[in-house]
């Protein structure tokens, strides 16, 4: 059996290697070598037939095996013919099985090869397809790119077609071609555009050159003009004395107007008003501007910058608030803020009011200088005052307060003390920077009187509604009159005080008839006292209680003496004197202390001096009121002392012999003495 | 009806029928305050109905106050102000007196009459009266002789005038100085007068002669030479007379013509009155003195003015029974109860 296998194997090898030979051989022709080829057989046989043969062979083999089995079981010997035969038959079957197996293998191999071949073909075709698809896509992209292409000419603003047809020369428009072809038309229009632009560029160049030429000529002319300036200046300079001589200050006013442009509005209003009033009604009024003009210019020039500043300020404020929150005690920054808030405009107005002395007081040439300031951040105006006199006014000690610039203008209008800011908005501003009272800064900044605001055209709603019928222009006149009246009355008082201090009561000739010729009581002292000292005097309580002694008033103490009697008179002098008359309160020390409140007669003297003052006013505007009041006080003291003897019959020599003529020494239930002097007859009677 | 007035000086003129309409006085600003500061109230008189009070001051003004509104529970500051103020005379109004229908005022040389009915309606209408060149200082009522007015004045004489005709019926001469005060004894038909000369004279109305003359300063108990001798207050009640001034306030029995008690009051008394079993007196000093007949000072009630000129009791109305006092102030103190000051009326 092993031999048989070997044979078969070699056979197979041979047949396998011989396959191409076999093919070739077949191709060459069958006549050459007849080679057995199973492959040919393979082509001819049908797999299904092979499968059936296989089944039959297997069945037959199994039958033979069973028969051998039966024979063996029946005890047949090896080598028995029957068995041998049967074995022979089964070997043949095995041979056919082997062949079938081989065939099956070959068929499988061939099938595999076929499949592979087909697959390769399909792959090639697929690759080709992919290439084609890619190409298509690329093409499509190109197409869309082309479609989306923008030409520069679309941005150029071309003249309309109609216009183009009309204006363009035919060699450019070429109507025949362009009529139906929009592309050509566009090209033609572009050509035309180019042409036109070229022409315009040419023109531009020409204009530039002409401009340059003109500029050059201007420069030449300018040079010429500026060369004239020094000459003109010289002429102006030379003409100044002439102007002055002719009292036509053209240049000065011009300068003032130039500077005035930089004034804040309210000061400008005041300047205009004061100038107008001065020219129209009052030649002794003059206005000038002082201060740093450059600073004012810088302040006014860049409005944008100022806005920036504002925002910067607010930033700073925020910052400040932040720091404040952190360190509430930082004082330095607050101080700066305060200073900033109270800042004055760099320019100020100086108003000079010449006050001619009244005919009884020859204070010629005294001038009231008023300096008006504008507080930019508070939007209020303030004023400082100064009086300069031609004559030397030192001497009267008690008059020190009279021309004090701090109090000179107090209460020019009733209750206008100028210590509080008139702008209600300021209070909130002050709260922010911690200013409690504006009055603390008045000495430095000036007084913000109501009338100052009104002169500057600033008006604020006041807390106490007051009827104010004199505003604007008419206000100027009344204020100027008041100012002049104030200075005149102060100057008059000043002079009166210096004589009062020398114990002389000046009585002018017009007022001589008010008093008897012989007055024995003498003024011995005249001193200024403070409000505090005044209120501390026991005999002035009724005046203080009635609210007639305010802190703004001036206070004086007069002492009138006769013999052992000493009359003290505490005087309240309202700043609006002589419009509001001085108020006397009396205390007599003679045989004990007597005050005006407890002694009816002293009370009567007080009323004689305080109430019946209209006859004491003297010539208008009543500057002699105070001295006349003092004089009457002396007269009344005379009467008081001379009529005080209770019993004429008793006592020896009287201290004060009766010299005054009296109709009656006592009248009425309170037995008042006669204090009224009747002029030509020279006797005293009751009111 | 008779009126008594005393006044200084010596010549008179007659003026008839002046119908002057007065405008309300308007003070403004400080003048207002200064005038008030130096004001003195000299005289007072209640209206016949007792609901109003008229007061005269040293500026010749008369103010009419409504007591009913000032005393009402819902009184405000405004109700203590006068309902009407007008200038009646040039000089001080030293004396005011109410008749059944009129208010009589004595001023600088003239006596004027004002109808109460019109004053209440705030109409000022001066009735005819006499003009003298001297000042009257005191009025009181003697209802003995109908329609006659007794005037004491600056000519040192007492004049009796017929109110109907305006003719002076008689002149009582005897005082040597200014007459401060007058009083009338109704039943006896006597007029009492006191003056600067220190004498109290008792006159018989019918004959016009001085019946008695008491020189108070000569009585040691009363005399106070440090003050003087004048008599500035005088009042009578049946047989009793009160007088004072320079001398101490003293109570006199008229039938015996002797002082029964002397009141130890400091200062000069300017007006006194009998009230029930008491004597009320005002003068120098910031108080109303309550005295007993026996001569003790029972109480001194403080008030506003530093010295008092006038005191008045409203007996015309039980509803508004008050004591009012005025003096060297623009305020008139009102006492609803005699023992304390209720409030002040103000000019």
Automatic annotation (TrEMBL), chain A:
Alphabetically ordered keywords of this record: Nucleus
Cellular localization per UniProt: Nucleus
Swiss-Prot/TrEMBL GO biological process terms: mRNA export from nucleus
Segments of skewed composition (Basic residues): 1-12
Regions of compositional bias (Acidic residues) in chain numbering: 305-320
Keyword Amino-acid biosynthesis on entry: no
Organism from which the protein derives: Esox lucius (Northern pike)
Basic and acidic residues bias spans: 21-33
Protein name: THO complex 5
Molecular-function annotations in GO: mRNA binding
Name of the gene this protein is made from: THOC5
Record carries keyword Nucleus: yes
GO cellular component terms, semicolon-separated: THO complex part of transcription export complex
UniProtKB/TrEMBL annotation, chain B:
InterPro entries: THOC6, WD40/YVTN_repeat-like_dom_sf, WD40_repeat_dom_sf, WD40_rpt
Example GO BP: mRNA export from nucleus
Keyword list, A-Z: WD repeat
WD repeats: 172-213
GO cellular component: THO complex; transcription export complex
Keyword Nucleotide-binding in record: no
Pfam families: WD40
Protein family: Belongs to the WD repeat THOC6 family.
Protein name: THO complex 6
Organism listed in the record: Esox lucius
Gene (UniProt): THOC6
């Amino acid at each position: 059996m092993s031999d048989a296998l070997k044979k078969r194997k070699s056979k197979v090898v041979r047949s396998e290697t011989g396959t191409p030979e076999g093919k070739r051989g077949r191709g060459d022709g069958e006549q050459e070598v007849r080679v057995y080829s199973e492959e040919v057989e393979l082509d001819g046989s049908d797999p299904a037939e092979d499968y059936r043969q296989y089944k039959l062979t297997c069945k037959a083999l199994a039958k033979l095996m069973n028969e051998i089995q039966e024979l063996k079981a029946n005890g047949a010997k090896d080598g028995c013919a029957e068995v041998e035969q049967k074995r022979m038959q089964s070997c043949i079957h095995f041979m056919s099985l082997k062949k079938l197996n081989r065939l099956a293998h070959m068929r499988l191999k061939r099938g595999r090869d076929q499949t592979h071949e087909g697959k390769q073909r399909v792959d090639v075709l697929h690759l080709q397809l992919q290439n084609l698809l890619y190409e298509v896509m690329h093409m499509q992209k190109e197409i869309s790119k082309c479609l989306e292409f923008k030409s520069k000419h679309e941005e150029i603003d071309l003249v309309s077609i109609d216009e183009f047809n009309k204006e363009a020369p035919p060699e450019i428009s070429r109507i025949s071609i362009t009529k139906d072809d929009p592309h050509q038309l566009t090209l033609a229009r572009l050509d035309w555009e180019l042409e036109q632009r070229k022409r315009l560029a040419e023109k531009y160049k020409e204009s530039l050159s002409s401009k340059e030429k003109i500029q050059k000529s201007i420069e030449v002319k300018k040079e010429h003009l500026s060369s004239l300036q020094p000459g003109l200046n010289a002429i102006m300079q030379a003409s100044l004395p002439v102007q002055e001589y002719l009292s036509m200050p053209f240049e000065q006013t011009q300068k003032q107007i130039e500077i005035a442009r930089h004034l804040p509005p309210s000061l400008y209003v005041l300047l205009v008003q004061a100038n107008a009033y001065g020219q129209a009604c009052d030649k002794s009024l003059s206005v000038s501007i002082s201060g740093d003009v450059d600073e004012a210019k810088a302040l006014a020039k860049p409005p944008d910058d100022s806005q920036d500043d504002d925002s910067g300020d607010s930033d700073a404020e925020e910052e400040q608030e932040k720091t404040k929150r952190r360190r509430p005690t930082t004082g330095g920054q607050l101080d700066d803020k305060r200073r900033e808030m109270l800042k004055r405009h760099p320019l100020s107005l100086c108003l000079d009011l010449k006050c001619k002395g009244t005919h009884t007081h020859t204070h010629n040439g005294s001038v009231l200088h008023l300096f008006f300031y504008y507080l930019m951040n508070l939007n209020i105006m303030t004023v400082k005052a100064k009086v300069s006199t031609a004559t030397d006014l030192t001497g009267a000690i008690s008059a020190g307060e009279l021309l004090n610039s701090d109090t000179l203008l107090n209460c020019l209008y009733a209750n206008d003390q100028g210590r509080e800011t008139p702008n209600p908005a300021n209070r909130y501003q002050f709260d922010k920077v911690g200013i409690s009272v504006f009055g603390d800064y008045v000495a430095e900044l000036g007084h913000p009187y109501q009338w100052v605001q009104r002169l500057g055209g600033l008006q604020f709603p006041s807390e106490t509604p007051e009827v104010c019928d004199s505003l604007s222009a008419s206000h100027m006149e009344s204020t100027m009159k008041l100012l002049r009246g104030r200075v005149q009355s102060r100057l008059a008082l000043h002079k009166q005080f210096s004589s009062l201090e020398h114990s002389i009561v000046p009585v002018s000739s017009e007022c001589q008839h008010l008093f008897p010729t012989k007055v024995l009581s003498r003024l011995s002292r005249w001193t200024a006292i403070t409000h505090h000292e005044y209120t501390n005097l026991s005999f002035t309580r009724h005046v203080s209680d009635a609210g007639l002694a305010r802190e703004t008033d001036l206070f004086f103490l007069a002492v009138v003496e006769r013999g052992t009697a000493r009359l003290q008179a505490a005087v309240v002098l309202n700043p609006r004197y002589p419009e509001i008359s001085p108020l006397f309160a009396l205390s007599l020390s003679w045989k004990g202390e007597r005050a005006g409140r407890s002694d009816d007669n002293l009370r009567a003297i007080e009323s004689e001096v305080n109430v019946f003052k209209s006859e004491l006013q003297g010539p208008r505007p009543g500057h002699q009121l105070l001295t006349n009041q003092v004089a009457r006080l002396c007269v009344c003291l005379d009467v008081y002392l001379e009529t005080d003897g209770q019993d004429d019959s008793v006592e020896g020599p009287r201290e004060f012999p009766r010299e005054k003529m009296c109709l009656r020494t006592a009248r009425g239930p309170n037995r008042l003495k006669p204090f009224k002097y009747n002029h030509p007859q020279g006797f005293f009677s009751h009111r | 009806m008779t009126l008594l007035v005393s006044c200084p000086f010596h010549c008179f003129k007659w003026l008839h029928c002046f119908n002057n309409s007065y405008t309300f006085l308007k003070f403004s600003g400080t003048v207002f305050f200064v005038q008030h500061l130096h004001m003195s109230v000299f005289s007072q008189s209640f209206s016949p109905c007792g609901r109003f009070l008229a007061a005269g001051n040293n500026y010749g003004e008369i103010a009419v106050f409504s007591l009913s509104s000032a005393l009402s529970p819902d009184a405000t500051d405004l109700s203590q102000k006068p309902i009407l103020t007008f200038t009646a005379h040039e000089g001080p109004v030293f004396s005011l007196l109410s008749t059944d229908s009129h208010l009589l005022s004595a001023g600088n040389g003239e006596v004027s009459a004002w109808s109460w009915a019109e004053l209440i309606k705030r109409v000022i209408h001066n009735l005819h009266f006499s003009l003298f060149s001297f000042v009257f200082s005191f009025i009181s009522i003697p209802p003995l002789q109908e329609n006659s007015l007794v005037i004491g004045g600056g000519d040192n004489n007492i004049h009796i005038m017929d109110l109907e005709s305006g003719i002076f019926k008689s002149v009582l001469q005897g005082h040597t100085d200014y007459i401060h005060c007058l009083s009338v004894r109704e039943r006896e038909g006597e007029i009492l007068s006191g003056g600067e000369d220190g004498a109290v004279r008792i006159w018989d109305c019918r004959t016009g002669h001085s019946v008695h003359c008491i020189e108070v300063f000569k009585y040691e108990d009363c005399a106070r030479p440090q003050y003087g001798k004048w008599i500035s207050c005088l009042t009578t009640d049946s047989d009793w007379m009160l007088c004072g001034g320079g001398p101490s306030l003293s109570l006199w029995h008229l039938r015996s013509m002797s002082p029964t008690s002397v009141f130890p009051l400091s200062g000069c008394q300017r007006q006194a009155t009998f009230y029930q079993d008491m004597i009320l007196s005002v003068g120098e000093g910031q108080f109303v003195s309550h005295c007993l007949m026996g001569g003790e000072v029972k109480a001194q009630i403080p008030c506003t003015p530093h010295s008092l000129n006038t005191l008045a009791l409203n007996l015309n109305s039980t509803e508004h029974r008050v004591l009012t006092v005025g003096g060297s102030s623009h305020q008139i103190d009102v006492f609803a109860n005699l023992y304390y000051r209720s409030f002040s009326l103000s000019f």
